[in-house]
Amino acid sequence: MESVKTLARLSKYLRRHKRALAIGACCIVLVNILGLSIPWLTKLAVDKIEAGTQPRVLLFYASLIVAASALQGIFRFSMRKLMIGASRKMEYELRNDLFDHLLTLSPSYFNRTRTGDIMAKATNDISAVREFLGPGIMYSINTVVVLAAATSLMLYIDPLLTAFALLPVPALAVIVNRFGRLVKERFDKVQQQFSKLNARVHENLSGIRVVRAYGIEESEKRQFSELNEDYVSKNMRLVQIWGTFHPLIALVGGIGAVIVLWLGGRQVVRGEISLGDFVAFSGYLMMLTWPAIAVGWVVNLVQRGAASMNRIARIMDEQPEIVDIDPLPLVKMKGEIEFKDVSFSYREELPPALENVSFRLPQGRKLAIVGKTGSGKSTLINLIPRLFQPASGKILIDGLEIERIPLRTLRCRIGYVPQESFLFSDSIKENIAYGLASARDEEVAEVAVISKISEEVEEFVEKFETLVGERGIALSGGQKQRTAISRAIIISPAILLLDDPFSSVDVATEREILRGLLRKVGDKTWIIVSHRLSSIREADEIIVLEGGRIAERGTHEELLKTGKLYRELHRRLLIAEELETA
Ligand SMILES: Nc1ncnc2c1ncn2[C@@H]1O[C@H](COP(=O)(O)OP(=O)(O)OP(=O)(O)O)[C@@H](O)[C@H]1O
Ligand SMILES: [Mg+2]
Q1: What kind and span of H or E run contains 411?
Q2: Ligand 2 (ion): which residues have CB within 5 A?
Q3: What's residue 75's pLDDT?
Q4: Which of 295, 418, 472, 553 is deepest in the core (most CB within 10 A)?
Q5: What's the fold here for domain 2-316?
Q6: 559, 567 in Cβ contact below 8 A?
Q7: pLDDT tier at 85, thresholds 50, 70, 90
Q8: Distinct helix (H) and strand (E) counts, the chain
Q9: Confidence of residue 135 (pLDDT cuts 50, 70, 90)
């Protein structure tokens, strides 16, 4: 059984809560013993009435029944609290595990997988698993206990009558089975439609500016309302099924009751069984109706839980490609970087994005990387914090292969300004201090001054507490970029990786930021990708990339003399900057 195997993956969580679950299961048994005692007490009372008794005795039975009901209530409450509570806790743990795991996965996984997909799994699938862990398990136990106990008591009262009363059971099984399958099918369709609807909303909201700019609201509205209608009609089909299911079950239960009334009634008249037995028997038969419905429902919960767990398991089985291998404790990172014949491609079928790249950058020196768009500059930078794994060749820091440096150490010693700045929907302060466990306000203010964002922030009403909105939407491109620069230098990195860090700021501001950076982290190792002459000129060495290969290298002066590509690039940049500053 496929689903059993998937569900076995949950045993880790079940084991952690075995106490609560075991006590909960005991409560279920107690609830049912008390529940089953009520028809029995009624039987005893009725027998007494038949024998002609005093009201006092009846009062005694009545109070016993009340007490049994009250106790039953208490145990039912404990059962729900323990079992549903445990399922909530297991859901919490599972969700945490999933999130933790997602954070370990490499960028290449997210290249392949849509965010919407992952989000659907993190919400819908986890709650389906929770429903299995909570109500699913609870009602499974309950159903088995009630079925077994009620049937035994009925058999005890009168085996033959029991056999007749249970005549409709095969019909019940057929109905539950057929309907169960239909419900599952239709439920699946509802879920799928829901995912589509969600994905649509997600896409439209995140692309709202494009939607507006191109004036396509009307067509988007139409498409959405079609999806929405579809969703409702799929839901209606599900409702129809449930709507038919319940009356059918009631009908079958009714048939059983009729049989009992007819045959059992005759037995009472003939004096073969007591009136009390008859009453208790009918009571137990009634108690069987709900578990009969529950079987179908529970089967459904289990199937859905298994299907969802399967989808979650597929993410959990995804191995992070980049992990610590036999890490060495690195005492202090000095910041010497060396590439030895490094090649890399994003996917096997793609041409290499980097080919046989070798260079050595001593501690505290600055390397500028230039080249046409798509020549591999960002790729080269991304390899250093091990966002991707080179296909061949070696990258060394302080003479150590970077695989041997613990990922955490490696990454927290590198100040990285990615080409596209990403901010979290938090305050500017939190965004700047992102890499630090705790940052003092003065530290934040200092780096903000260096990256020239301070003046603008001081003009905001809430200053550094200003919220930047999702992905920093409330800031301009240049403000985001400078926030990202502040974030990179606040950690006092040993290595600074700057991927086109000034593309959204003007030349004059760039020069000021550069001066500040040189003062603060001028003694660190830098790799800077840039299309700006002032940044490039600061470098001790320049590498010109072309199609993933190093085409030219040298100092600014050397390259001006000998480098064809560089000379051409330099000429164009010069014109561009003159135009800008003119
Ligand atoms: N995630 C990715 N998956 C597949 N191919 C990629 C991916 N990222 C980049 N590439 C490809 O790798 C090559 C190098 O890209 P890279 O981003 O390093 O260029 P770049 O020099 O930084 O360009 P730019 O100046 O435009 O930033 C390009 O051909 C690009 O299409
Ligand atoms: Mg790039």
Answers
A1: helix 407-412
A2: 378, 419
A3: 92
A4: 472
A5: ABC transporter transmembrane region fold (1.20.1560)
A6: yes
A7: very high
A8: 24, 10
A9: confident
